User: Fold this.
Amino acid sequence: GVVIAEGILGNDKIFQNHGNSWGYLILLYIFVQVSRLFVVGTLYPVLRNFGYGLEWKEAIILVWSGLRGAVALSLSLSVKRSSGGSSLITSETGTLFVFFTGGIVFLTLIVNGSTTQYILHLLDMDKLSATKRRILDYTKYEMLNTAFKTFGDLGDDEELGPVDWPTVKRYIRCLNDLEGVPMHPHSASETGDSLDPTNLRDIRIRLLNGVQAAYWAMLDEGRITQTAANILMQSVDEGIDLASNELCDWRGLKDNVSFPNYYKFLQTSMFPQKLITYFTVERLEFACSICAAFLRAHKIARQQLHDFIGDSGIASVVIEESKVEGEDARKFLEDVRVNFPQ
Assistant:
């Protein structure tokens, strides 16, 4: 801002020679918005049908959220710095570069940036879904429950001495206006439990986040190796990318959990069984570790999801998808037990 002001205010002749600069700035701002609208509109069929997908409401926000900033200003300041010493770029041209670029940055931040909230509201994109609200309500319930328990335990702390607990409670907002234990959010009747694709995607992602957190915990506890953890984490990342269509984090693990054809050949060949076991046990042990971790993580995540959302239709659908995902892992573990009891 200081550099732009110095360049413009320090040159009295700039607007005398270029009196239409302010008008050109407004036209340039409009052109920037139209050009972004043209690019997003042209590519909308591709953006909608490939990758993560894009709805028309999101496309509008994508157009309006084209804020300009540090990179553009840095480039314009570079032009200004090199101007004056070259016959190709005059000092006035360098100042105009900074003026137009700074003006566009200012207008996009002030106009676009400050009105995006209202556009989100007009497009009805700033409201929580029923599922997300249930999760939020459960989180508040858990926090309040913990606050109540902690406040009750403090009363028995002898080190605190004769404390005026009613005064303390009055200064704790979450406890001030509440009496008794907060009501569990799942005890109230819920409506709007729609199997909307967006809601399904949100719940699948929440389940997969829980699965990933369980993998981290297993790694910290030494239940899985770092190599297995990397593969399991990557499978979750791939599953999150495809959460709009289905729950499919098992797909990324199939290559590491399989019986190569030569295993059965070795079993039926003349090779000593101890030698066969030596060459196969490491691969099978790693695969079994992946399967066991997958099943354990999904079990933990399903329980967490049920705790957060309760007995809702959308949670039941995702939990059932999680159980189906684990069938291949269970089958593999059973096959190993039968074919390689040693």
